[in-house]
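input
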Amino acid sequence: MEETKPALLIVEDDPDIADMLTAYFRVQGYEVLTVKWGEDCIRVCQNSLPGLVILDIRLPDIDGFEVARRLRSNRKTANIPIIFCTEKRERSDRLRGLELKADDYITKPFDIVELRLRVHNMLARSLNQPLQNSITGLPTGALVDEALQITLARPDTIFSVFTIKNLKKFRDVYGFVAADDLLRAVTLILDDIVQDKSSGGRFLGHLQPDYFLIICDASGSFSLKERIQKKLDPSFQFFYSAEHRETGLFAQDSLAVSFADVLPPLEGFEDLKSLKDRLNALCR
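output
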């Protein structure tokens, strides 16, 4: 039996183009849903994740750039593949799309066969879960599952979910490129502290894109988190612009270290799924 293909969400306000794409991709075996409003796209993605979004930039309510920004800033929808499909050809539009982490960009009028191949290739890549986070290079996916499975049997293990408070505001103010640079810098500091050669058996990876997972023994957990906080909290000031430091834009919601732990004993987690469910519940 042929494997069911992922669902496509087409966001297009031109009914002729929307009908043509819907008919074409349904013939190719895809489940297809079409909307013409940006807000509808966001609502659909939050309710039921599509395999891929073909997103027009010029929409009746909010533009495709804003749709992509909101999808990427939401934990649930951050990794949905997006193809911008638009009449806009300016270099600045392409750069803006790349900054918003669009996976591809095709301009109208387009070759429908080329679009089909782009959709096929992108879905093939997205279905093969990466083993490293594309921004930080840290383990994710199956590598994290493997580390969790190994440590489930250890009675004195602490699982710390680490994130940066108010990262969303920072990303809204400075953009995705600056936020990615911040995450890379944080990763270098975390890796240096967590992977200290004097302490073996520790693990650093990504539970979700903005959430790190640190696995260590209970005896060293407090000092480890204390070192991370002392190193990172003062460093965050350097990522603000001089103007914003002077005006105090982030005074009430500054970047800061945040930890949430799953503590031993681990008898309540009989398998990997129950532990992951608990850890993912801390990502909020």
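quick obs: Residues 57 and 63 are 5 Å apart (CA to CA).
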